[in-house]
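Q: What would this chain look like folded?
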Amino acid sequence: MTDHGTGTEPDGLRAALRAEVAGEVDFGTTARALTTMDASNYRRVPLGVVSPRDADDVVAALALCREYGVPLVARGGGTSIAGQATGTGVVLDFTRHMNRVLALDPAGRTATVQPGLVLDRLQEAAAPHGLAFGPDPSTHGRCTIGGMIGNNACGAHSVAWGTTADNVTALTAALCTPSDHAPALSRLGRDWAGAPAGLRPLVESHLALLRTGFPALPRRISGYALDALLPENGADVARAFCGSEGTLGLLTEATVRLVETPPARALAVLGYADEGAAADAAPGLLPHAPLTVEGMAADLVPRAAVDGLPRGAAWLFVETGGETRAAARAAADRIVRTADALDARVVTDPVAGRALWRIREDAAGTATRMPDGSEAWPGWEDCAVPPARLGAYLREFRALLSAHGLRGAPYGHFGDGCVHVRIDFDLVTPEGIARFRTFSEALADLVVAHGGSLSGEHGDGMARAELLPRMYGAELTALFARVKAVWDPPGLLNPGVLVHPARLDENLRFGVLPRAPVPVEFGYPQDGGDFAAAVRRCVGVAKCRTTTPGQDVMCPSFRATGEEEHSTRGRARLLHEMLAGRAGAPDAVIADGWRSTQVRDALDLCLSCKGCRSDCPVGVDMATYKAEFLHHHYAGRVRPAAHYTMGRLPRWLRLAAATRTAPLVNALAGRERWAALGKRLAGVAPQRELPRLATQPFSRWFARRPVPPGTRVLSSGQVTFLWPDTFTEHLAPGAGRAAVRVLEAAGQVVLLSPPGVCCGLTYVSTGQLDLARKVMTRTLDLLDADVGPDTPVTVLEPSCAATLRTDLPELLPDDPRAAELAGAVRTFAETLEAQTPDWRPPRLDRPVVGQTHCHQHAVLGDAADRRVREAAGLTGALSGGCCGLAGNFGFERGRGHYEVSVRCAEEQLLPSVRSAPADAVVLADGYSCRTQLDQLAGVRGRHLAEILADALPPGA
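A: My prediction, written as structure tokens:
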């Protein structure tokens, strides 16, 4: 038999899998790199990835891997915290094909599903019947039912509806039977019928041990749930299979219970002096039958969100339900009266409630950064103790952290006694790893002393399995190994997990990264200038894989393709493996560093929307990483044609303006043959219409217009510099003219920034960072004499404003002028609000439709815009997502750019415009957004400045 840990592909395995499996078999570099990690601290490099189409494929893959002695690991959403979704053999990815609801029985309140189904898809299918699957982890938008069964996941509503095991009625799994039998599917339920032959006698010979060896608490997830096989518990084999982390069999189908959901809900947020006080109060709320009792402290709450919470330094989030909103509110009020909190707030509005819940749901990512920006990691993510002991446990836990010189911010399911925490372990140096081990051993003893479970939700994996003897003792742990041997005689299913475990300080994913900072172009101020630390930000929470439309932007390319390599997490994983190769890791999947074609191809469909910068709970900024990579990848090499044309667009447009050839260019663009030739040479998609150039650039109009009296009187508080960005200057001067009219009507003296200034956006987005730095430095030189530190610079194009706010100071970190200009940048609405507080825009009293620009969402914020729209009577909310054009992205020829661009637009923007009332105003501040609307829907979008200018009275 092949050594399970060698990572060497046996001859013939790949060909045999391709011959027997109908689904995809991918042993390539990208597929392997994407599955080296999950959301844990661990990394194991697989031989390849199989995406089974059906149960027959699963059985076939299992039979072949047994024949060749190769391990198998089942993988769902890859959000496992303890390392269960990684392995050195073949990874089975169930999300690609085995992801459907097979049957839904509203009368019987059950659903039969495939293991790769994302939880949100099941909830969407059940919701029209007033039903839901009770367990709901915070990763509900990307975790799969198979993964939830494997880890016995729980979620916030477990105080009401229990764990996944409590909601499973029957399972079908492929079992790795003895070698003289072919692997087969077995139906597992509340009897011994589908269980392996040796399981019942083994259990019946250890009844006394099973009756006394398991602590009684609601969140006992660690180890195998063998007590479910006791006669008094109905010999529930399906329940015992839950939480086995893919070590006993390969799930192919599950029948689960659904619960009736209350028609109305209320959320009571209770404030306490500290987390210990909140934990002490939680058990007293359980008799009121709340739906949730969640806790978190102030060190996990973003500063901007604290104002929306009641007074205190820690909070309980207690949800109640009812037939009506009034009934739910009454139940929440009863909770408040019982709670003895410092302060409380009750919310019944669903929108406000979701905003508060997002604070709690994002904690899994937020917790990976300490308040000072230092890194924190999982590993002790979900211990659980009896709820009545939670307060005492948390106090001792804090003391233990302090004794080991560590920091962490606990939060979690206080009503069930389950605590999540990320701790600032040093998982790179030998000294730090040694402290990780000694702390882990001490914490395991503390949990056991409180009658708890090492895992209360995410399973043991490689993080805690080594410590199971401290919780269960030697005899019961040995029984776990015998049970594993009955289900999986050759030991091929997820080896190193639960039974015969890997050491908790082996296979750590950080050790393969470079120790010294990699030479890079951006400053990475939030990561100490270290590109590897920036890449490490991605812990695998996988919020970027969420496909439910909403106000978030991240990650439009994944939503369009559904491919892991096009998610923020997938790209971060490829960059991680690239850095491992640079550091000389012996098992590195990507060995050619910045020249990697696999990394290039994955980043190629990144729209550089920067959505991840704000929507990712840990602030991964893939747009910046992409620009960095492209700079190094093409250093000294010929670039794609689009980089020379659209990437250097400001240069060509200035040349056309200087030579006054815009009419000629427009005429040629209007002729089909010349346009086709121009697009082919410029690397532009043939489906795109070439934009027309302005025959009178904005700055030329500005210089020739009649100057209002007093324009040269530079009075503080009345002057704003208007930035002539490339798009406003050469392609959409109407937005600039409108902005001037509105600003002057509001009492501002408008001056134009010096000619020739440029933010460098197109150079940055194509990774031409040397040129970008030159352009930016020249711009700062031009501004030296004209723009002071107290003069606002109004930028109409959101993407240019975002570049000035973020890329400029990060590319020129040593030039103080860069930070000064970044601080002076204002959006049009911010200028109106800050510079003209007493001015009121004209009332339009019309509905508004459109989309918040992705860079505005991610970098600039739109609070001022929303207030200006409200003051103008523009009613309604803009959609989320990304328009898909994204500057040069949607114009580039080949590699699916145009197709992805269209799919992005069709997700939210175009449907919202098509369904808008006839009198709706179509708002689109970004030139790309307006172009996309025009070319795909024949709709004219307008900048906010244009909308307000059109409504001004004549002569204003």
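The CA atoms of residues 425 and 436 lie 6 Å apart.
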